[in-house]
Amino acid sequence: MTKMRKSGNPVLRGRTRMAVKREDYLDWADYFMAVAFLSAQRSKDPRTQVGACIVNDENKIVGIGYNGMPRGCSDEALPWQRKNDDWLETKIPYVCHAEMNAVMNKNCASVKGCTIYVALFPCNECTKVIMQSGIKEVVYMSDTKHDKPSMVASRRLLDAVGIPYRQHIPKQSKVTIDFGALEDELDSTSTR
Question: Which of 99, 125, 137, 183 is catalytic?
Answer without folding.
Answer: 99
